[in-house]
Amino acid sequence: MHRDDTNPPDRVNVKHYLESCLPCYARGLSNGERMPKRYDIVVAGAGISGLSLAALLALEGSHSVLLLEKGSVPGGRFKVEKRDGYLLDWGIHACLLGARGAIGEVLRRCASPVRISPVGMALYHDGALRAILGERLISIARQQALSSLDMARLGLAVFREWGESSYATSVAQWVETHRASAAVELLLKALCIGLLATDQFDRASIGELFSFLRQTARHGSAVGYPQGGWGPVLDTLLETVQGSPKCESRFDFGLECVIAPRKRVRAVVVNGEEIECRAVVCAFPPQMLAERVTVDPPLPAEYGRCLASLEESAGLCIEMGLNRPVTPDTRVVFSVDPPALVWAVSNLSPRVAPPGKQLIQFFSPLGPDQQKDERFISDRLDSLVDLGAAVFGGPLDEDWRRHMVTTVGGVVPFTGQARPERPAVEVPGYSGLFLIGDGVCVAGLGGDLAVRSALVAESLVCEYVRQ
Ligand SMILES: Cc1cc2nc3c(=O)[nH]c(=O)nc-3n(C[C@H](O)[C@H](O)[C@H](O)COP(=O)(O)OP(=O)(O)OC[C@H]3O[C@@H](n4cnc5c(N)ncnc54)[C@H](O)[C@@H]3O)c2cc1C
Predict the structure, then answer these.
(1) Which atom of ligand 1 is nearest to the CA of 52?
(2) Which region holds residue 312: left if phi is over 0, alpha if psi is between -120 and 50, else beta?
(3) Residues 390, 322 contacting (CB under 8 angstroms)
(4) Dihedral sign of CA atoms 294, 295, 298, 299 in order
């Protein structure tokens, strides 16, 4: 749902960028060679979930795999764009759970040299910047956001409230029922905006937020950023897939139909051609399985309706190239009013900006009506630029700015579509049909969830095709 992209005078086409810097892409993954007619596993979608799964299957090495991508370039919502010597993230920006999260795990298994640097978190409110989480351990910091009593109460809740009822409780309900202090309410709202990508506090699931905080405590890491940006991560995954004699990748090939006589997968139809396979993994948001892909025999009507009704999150994303650095801060800064997060990502990975320049990124969630309201978006844009100047203590001297309103998460973690309610990785009632990505019933949020679902699917799919 990419709506707007201002000032793109020298925007570099992503495909050209990938061709110039990714050797395996330049080798012609999207060439017109005829495909063999039979594979063990078809992975449809080369976003971060499909690429991760294909890379894991390539490393496992036992099964023949076909990776299909409907578009002409890999990455989905995880792409990198080059502009004036800057490397701009298209979708995924922050690596949730840092090096200890699912993305770190897949990179380790690919023996990738890409390092994920830890990132601290801060809260900007009423003109003051306060620490929230340390770079490594959960340390809802002293200088700061919460009193010791608040910290103890919140810590207890995070570890005690983890059943299905917490996923069905909204942030606003939880604040009210627990008579949370103003400081706890502010902190939860800020984390909701930054981590769940929504400021609809009466709908966002507190269970998802608590689950993230528990994982942060367990792994000792909240957020990270890859050195060199996300390009080297994409590169690693593609090279792993392309380097395997068991894996084929095809671009401009969209999955059209899954053929599953007696509900056991036998083949797929791709660009009008039938290809035999034993398992199909749909690595795209679940709504698309209901709306864009035919399953024969069809998915039960109620299941299809459930998939189609899942709501996505969306927001305003700004990238700003500054002609001189304004801050040495390496933390991601959350704000509730305006709802946003902002950080100087080139402080974490200097290679994403030219020497002497600085790359600033903003994200602000938008509800469905706000996304269509040009006036609202323009006002939000102004308030975000003011926020940046306030957070970094001076005017932002921009060389250029890019902004876009776009879909962010495949399924926004609202109550009713939080983890327990999301579709399972194995499509019920069908043998050999799987669903991965950032909308399935696996722990996590955003890109971390997408990749974790690939880790979960790897063993399920391998076990299935071995039978
Ligand atoms: C602006 C923005 C900011 C974000 N910030 C963060 C962040 O900071 N941290 C974070 O963790 N996450 C973030 N996200 C979310 C993150 O980008 C996604 O969760 C993740 O990239 C989803 O990956 P995916 O593989 O599940 O899906 P996608 O990236 O959507 O990939 C699906 C792929 O499938 C292809 N496809 C669709 N239909 C078919 C078909 N029929 N046949 C073959 N291929 C098909 C699509 O073309 C696409 O390439 C952000 C997203 C956006 C847009």
Answers:
(1) 25
(2) beta
(3) no
(4) negative
**CB of 120 sitting under 6 A from ligand 1:** no
> Is residue 409 within 6 Å of ligand 1 at its C-beta?
yes
Paired strand residues for 331: none
Does residue 130 have a pLDDT over 90? Answer: no
Atom of ligand 1 nearest to the CA of 71: 47
Nearest Cα to 280, choosing from 39, 75, 29, 106?
39
Strand order in the sheet with 121-125: 128-133, 121-125, 332-335, 340-344, 358-366, 314-322, 398-407
Region of 446 (left: φ > 0; alpha: ψ -120 to 50; beta: rest) is left
Burial of 35 (0-12, 13-18, 19+ CB in 10 A): middle
Between CA 161 and CA 166 the distance in angstroms is 6
Instruction: Output DSSP code: residue 24.
Output: H
Residue 419: which of 246, 223, 211, 217 has the closest Cα?
211
DSSP state letters, 168-200:
TSBHHHHHHHTT--HHHHHHHHHHHHHHHS---
Q: Which amino acid is at 280?
A: V
Axis-axis angle for helices 231-242, 102-109 (nearest 10)? 40
What pTM, to 2 d.p., does this model score?
A: 0.92
Domains, in order of start, for the chain: 3-93+231-310+413-466 (3.50.50.60)
Least confident among 122-131, 197-206, 401-410, 434-443: 122-131
Is ligand 1 within 6 A of the CB of residue 94? yes
Query: 228 — alpha (psi -120 to 50), left (phi > 0) or beta?
Result: left
pLDDT (mean) for 71-80: 93
Q: What is the mean pLDDT of residues 177-204?
A: 95
Evaluate whether 418 touches 167 at the Cβ level (below 8 Å): yes
Edge-to-edge strands of the sheet including 95-96?
Answer: 95-96, 223-226, 116-119
CA of 50 to the centre of ligand 1 (A): 10
Alpha-carbon 285 to chain mean position: 11
β 294-296/255-259 pair status: parallel
Cα(96) to ligand 1 centroid in Å equals: 15
> Which pLDDT band holds residue 144 (cuts at 50, 70, 90)?
low
